[in-house]
C-alpha cells in the first residue's frame, strides 16, 4: 500500500507542467501553428525564440485560453498539469486563468487601466479570485509591490499607472500576474517596451519571483543570451513549426538545425545579444510552404525538404526537425 502511494506521488511530481503534443492551430483556416510538440517540467523555465510571426505569442495566448473566443481551430493535445486545454470549457478556463495561469504582456502601460490606482489593480484579483477581504487584499498588495522592488510602496498603491515609469509599470504587472501564486507564468516579451539597460533586471526579477513561488515561466524573448540565462529549456520556432528544442545549453551551444545556426550567427554582440533574422523573409500565412517551412531560406534544403515535413526527433535534451542536421 505504502509502495503504491509513494509511486503515485512520484508520478504526480514528475508529470510535466505543460505538454504540447502534435498541437496545431488555425486562424481563418490558415495554419498558424503546425504540429508543435514540447514539454516543460515543473519548476523549470522555457524560452520561445524565433522571428516575428513564428507563433510565439499565439502559443502564449492559446495556453491562457484567450483565443477560443476568436474562433480559432485547434487540434492535437495541449496539457497543463495533465489537464487537456483543447477541450476545456469557459467555466474551467475561468478557474485556471489568473489563479493557476498568469500572464505578463509586453507593454505594461497599455495593459494597466489608466482609471484605476495601482492598489486597485493588485487588490482586485486577490479579492475576486482568492476571496480576500478589502483589508487583507491591501496588505497583500503592499507586500507584492515590495517584493517586485518598488520603493515607497505604500504611496505607490495610491498612484495611477501614468505616474510610474515604464520599468515600474512592468514591475507592477509582474506583481499582478503573480498575485495569486500561479503555477505557470507566461511572459510575452516582457522587456520589449523597456529601456535596454533594465531589460536584464526585469527578466531576472521574473526569474527570481517565479523560483521563490516554486512556479514555472514560459518566456517569449528576442534575446538569445537572456533566454539562455533565464531558462533551462529553449524552443526554436519558425513559421509555426518547432525547428529545434531542448536544454538551453545544448540547443544554443551545440545547435544542429540550420535555422538555429542562422539565428546565432546573426546575433549582434553589443551590450546584449539581440536576435536578428537570417537573410530572406518568413512566409505569409496564406503561402506556407509544404514540407519544412524553412526550406525556401535554407542553405541545406533538398527536394525532400520541400516535399516532406521532417519529424521532430531526438531526446528530451535535444530534438531537431531537419532532414540534414549539421
Ligand atoms: N488576430 C490575428 N488574426 C489573424 N492572424 C493573426 C492574428 N494574430 C497573429 N496572427 C498571425 O499569426 C502568426 C503568428 O503570430 P504571432 O503574433 O503569434 O507571432 P510572434 O512569433 O509572437 O511574432 P512577434 O515576435 O512579432 O510578436 C503571424 O503570421 C500573424 O500574422
UniProtKB/TrEMBL annotation:
GO terms for biological process: peptide transport; transmembrane transport. Its main location: membrane. One of its GO terms (cellular component) is plasma membrane. Keywords: ATP-binding, Cell membrane, Membrane, Nucleotide-binding, Transport. It is a peripheral membrane protein. It is found in: Cell inner membrane. SMART domains: AAA. Pfam families: ABC_tran, oligo_HPY. InterPro entries: AAA+_ATPase, ABC_Ni/Peptide_Import, ABC_transporter-like_ATP-bd, ABC_transporter-like_CS, Oligopep_ABC_C, P-loop_NTPase. Residues 18-264 form the ABC transporter domain. GO terms for molecular function: ATP binding; ATP hydrolysis activity. Belongs to the ABC transporter superfamily. This is Peptide/nickel transport system ATP-binding protein.
Amino acid at each position: 500500500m505504502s509502495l503504491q502511494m509513494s509511486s503515485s506521488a512520484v508520478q504526480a511530481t514528475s508529470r510535466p507542467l505543460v505538454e504540447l503534443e502534435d498541437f496545431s492551430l488555425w486562424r481563418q483556416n490558415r495554419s498558424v501553428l503546425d504540429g508543435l510538440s514540447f514539454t516543460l517540467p515543473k519548476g523549470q523555465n522555457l524560452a520561445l525564440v524565433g522571428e516575428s510571426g513564428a507563433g510565439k505569442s499565439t502559443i502564449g495566448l492559446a495556453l491562457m485560453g484567450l483565443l477560443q473566443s476568436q474562433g480559432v481551430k485547434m487540434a492535437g493535445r495541449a496539457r497543463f498539469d495533465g489537464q487537456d486545454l483543447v477541450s476545456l470549457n469557459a467555466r474551467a478556463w475561468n478557474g485556471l486563468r489568473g489563479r493557476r495561469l498568469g500572464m505578463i504582456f509586453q507593454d505594461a502601460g497599455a495593459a494597466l487601466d489608466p482609471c484605476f490606482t495601482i492598489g486597485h489593480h493588485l487588490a482586485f484579483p486577490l479579492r475576486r479570485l482568492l476571496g480576500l477581504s478589502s483589508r487583507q487584499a491591501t496588505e497583500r498588495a503592499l507586500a507584492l509591490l515590495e517584493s517586485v522592488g518598488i520603493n515607497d510602496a505604500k504611496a505607490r498603491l495610491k498612484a495611477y499607472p501614468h505616474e510610474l515609469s515604464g520599468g515600474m509599470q512592468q514591475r507592477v504587472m509582474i506583481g499582478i500576474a503573480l498575485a495569486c501564486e500561479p503555477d505557470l507564468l507566461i511572459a510575452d516579451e516582457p522587456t520589449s517596451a523597456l529601456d535596454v539597460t533594465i531589460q536584464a533586471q526585469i527578466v531576472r526579477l521574473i526569474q527570481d519571483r517565479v523560483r521563490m513561488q516554486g512556479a514555472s515561466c514560459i518566456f517569449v524573448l528576442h534575446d538569445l543570451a537572456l533566454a539562455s540565462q533565464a531558462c533551462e529549456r529553449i524552443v526554436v520556432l519558425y513559421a509555426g513549426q518547432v525547428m529545434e528544442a531542448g536544454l538551453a545549453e545544448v540547443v544554443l551551444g551545440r545547435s544542429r538545425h540550420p535555422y538555429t545556426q542562422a539565428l546565432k550567427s546573426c546575433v549582434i554582440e553589443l551590450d546584449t545579444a539581440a536576435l536578428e533574422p537570417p537573410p530572406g523573409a518568413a512566409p505569409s500565412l496564406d503561402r506556407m510552404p509544404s514540407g519544412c517551412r524553412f526550406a525556401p531560406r535554407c542553405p541545406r534544403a533538398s527536394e525532400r525538404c520541400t516535399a516532406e515535413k521532417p519529424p521532430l526527433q531526438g531526446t528530451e535534451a535535444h530534438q531537431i526537425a531537419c532532414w540534414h542536421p549539421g
